[in-house]
Structures are given as structure tokens and as C-alpha cells.
Amino acid sequence: MPFATRAGQRASADDPRNRRIYPRRRNTYPAAYVDDGSAQKPAYGLDISGGGICLLTKEPIPSSVLKNLELLVMIGERKVRFTGSGCWAVPVKVRGTTHYRYGVRLKQISDRDWDYVMEHSLDGEGGPQLTPGTLLTDSQRATVLPPEKQHRIAEALALKKRLDYHGEKRLPLVEYTFNDYVMQRGTPFYRLSVRSKTINADRSPAEHRTSVLVAIEGDAVKVLD
């Protein structure tokens, strides 16, 4: 869904407003939103991701409703409820009739529903293009794990005695495998498998594999095992 200003101008692909951290699945699906009178109004979703959706409506949505928009969408065989906030809006012509397209940023959703949305959109376009079970490439690691996060992971592994790390400035020598996306208590995470090494007292190497959750939009790091 291209970004549009209030005047209806689209942002270019390299505009920072149009950068995505979640893969987006383009498909049309039934949706409904709650208006000022608490009545459900029909709509269509045009795409979906872990960050929000593009919504098409026949009527303009009042700005007061857009601030905390209640939505019900049908993704595959599952009804998903969430609340979002409007980020942009632009009128469009559909078969000669004016409709309204909205970019809606996700605000609140159940953990299980978010996991389902991510499973649905995992192979969509945009985002870091992560494939379950594969090592992060250099470019993916730079996007998913900026240096401060890599150091936080190293600190967590060192506490578990799975990495010889003492707060060095250099980045830790570890490998990251992407497993999946998961939300816990409203916080979305990457679930990674981290391969690290330590040196035993007899100078022999010991290899470790650790499952780690890394917050997508925050600083949290959780060691799962």
C-alpha cells in the first residue's frame, strides 16, 4: 500500500515513510469497522502485515473514529479482531464511484491473532525477507539486529555461560538462524536460534545453540532455554 499524504500524493519507494519492518501480503479480504454509532460498516482489506492493513471503504471514516478504529477482518478461515489508528487517507475511484483508502497502523491485537497474521503474510513482499530455518545474511542481520541488540544478546548468552563475552566493543562472533515471528503480551519478537562457542578449561571448544526472542520494535532480549 503506497503511502499517501492528505493531499493524495504518494511517497516514493525510498521515502522513509514507506519503509517496512514486516512482510506484507497483498490480497483482498472482507472487513468491517465500527463507526461513531457503534454500527458495523462493510469494507475490504487490500493488504495486511504485522504492522497494519490497507482498508478500502465506501464512505469516509470520521477522524474521531480513525484515532481508535475497531476492525474485524477475515483472513483465510479465521476472523481477526484488532484496533488500529489511521496513518493516511486518499480518495480513489472504483468503477467510477469514489471510495476511500486508508493506511491503518495496528495498535492492539491478541498474541494468537498476531501470530496467525504473521504466518499468513510471512512470504509477502517487503520487510527483511526472512525465511524460517535459514541463517541471517549480512544485510538481514544489519536490519534485524543493529549492534546494540547484538551486544544485548551477547550479554544474555554470557550470563548463561554460552559465550565468552566481557562487554567488548567488537560484535560477538555468533550465527543467527531465523525461526519465526511471535508476539508475547503485546510485544512482537523475532524468534532466533543463536549458535555460539565457549572455550573449556582444557582449551577445547564447546558449541551451544540457544533459542532467543528479540523485540522487533524495542530493546527486549529473552533467552528461552
Structure description:
The two termini are 39 Å apart. The chain has helices spanning 63-66, 111-121, 138-144, 147-159; strands spanning 24-34, 40-49, 52-57, 69-75, 78-94, 97-109, 134-135, 175-184, 187-199, 205-215, 221-223. It folds into two domains: 16-121, predicted glycosyltransferase like domains (Thrombin, subunit H); 134-223, no CATH class. Strand 9 (187-199) and strand 10 form a beta hairpin. By secondary structure, the chain is of the alpha+beta class. The strands form two sheets. The chain has a six-stranded antiparallel beta barrel.
Keywords:
225 residues, alpha+beta, Thrombin, subunit H, 11 strands, 16% helix, 46% strand, disordered N terminus
CATH class categorisation of the largest domain: Mainly Beta
**Proportion of strand residues:** over 45%
Q: Characterize the biggest β-sheet.
A: 6 strands, antiparallel, barrel
The residue-averaged pLDDT reads 90
What structural class results from the helix and strand content? alpha+beta
What is the fold-level CATH name, i.e. the topology of the largest domain?
Answer: Thrombin, subunit H
CATH superfamily of the largest domain: predicted glycosyltransferase like domains
Question: Segments where pLDDT lies below 50 for 5+ residues?
Answer: 1-18
Envelope shape: elongated
Strand order of the largest sheet: 1-2-3-6-5-4
Order of helices and strands: EEEHEEEHEHHEEEE
Count of individual domains: 2
Extended strand count: 11
CATH architecture of the largest domain: Beta Barrel
Radius of gyration: 21 Å
The helicity comes to 10-25%
Count of separate DSSP helical elements: 4
Distance between the termini: 39 Å
